[in-house]
Amino acid sequence: MGTVLVTGASRGIGLELARQYAEDGWQVLAAARTPEKSAGLRDLTTEFGDRVSPQTLDVTSDLSIADLAERLDGRAIDLLINNAAVYARTGTHVGELDYDAWADTFEANLFGVMRLTESLLKNVAASERKQIAAISSGMGSLSAVAGGAVAQSGTSYQYRTSKAALNMAMLILSKELAPRGIAVAIISPGWVKTDMGGAGAAITPEVSVAGIKKILASPPMEISGKFLSYDGSAWAW
Fold first, then answer.
1. pTM higher than the cut 0.90
2. Helix 112-119 to helix 62-71 angle, to the nearest 10 degrees?
3. How many Å apart are CA 133 and CA 71, to the nearest integer?
């Protein structure tokens, strides 16, 4: 087992990723804006002890990312999972679009991922596994929108465009980092019963994360640059 860093680890998919990786024997760096306020993280540290290390991180803050990078200087990170994301709930239709929320969404869902990945790239490069993963969404698939996904799950301009942009950035990153032996996976977790996905979602965090982990356990370069669902199926771009 190695070391995994998970962002957005205070709840939902991120918390379940931290739990399942700790259960498997990994050293887990569980990053969140206010980890001390997360009852779920407190439970994990009680259960797994120093196998789970909460880390303060705001992916929209250059200073916060720099602080984390300084704390982790010299520590190898086998798997960096960029999971933290935001979802605008209002101002998502033409005539009432919330451009501030749109900018905030890109700050977290795209720029935050790139900021953190750049800052921790030497940590990943120093590891044995050398794997980066971005938790994306099927809502970022242009093909899905063209096929009628908007009618099914709403316009969600801010979230959809941020995830489509994330997919492109991660695809480019996978090509740029390939010569260095660093792999980049892009995974849709499915529609998950979390604060973001809602109580009516199709699957639980446990099911989603089990699928994500199975995908990430593949030889890293074999899945690098691919856009995959938690169940292993391929998403059309």
1. yes
2. 30
3. 21
pLDDT tens across 13-48, in order?
999 999 999 999 999 999 999 999 999 999 999 999
Beta strands in the chain (DSSP E): 3-6, 27-32, 52-56, 79-82, 131-135, 183-188, 227-229
Q: pLDDT digit string (tens) for 135-186?
A: 999 999 998 877 766 655 678 999 999 999 999 999 999 999 999 999 999 9
- Express the helix, strand and coil content of the chain in percent, nearest 5 each: 50, 15, 35
Domain holding 50: CATH number? 3.40.50.720
Asked whether residue 234 is assigned to any structural domain, the reply reads: no
Alpha-carbon distance of 41 to 15, in angstroms, equals 7
Query: Which tokens sit at 92?
Result: 């998502």
Parent domain of 24:
3-229
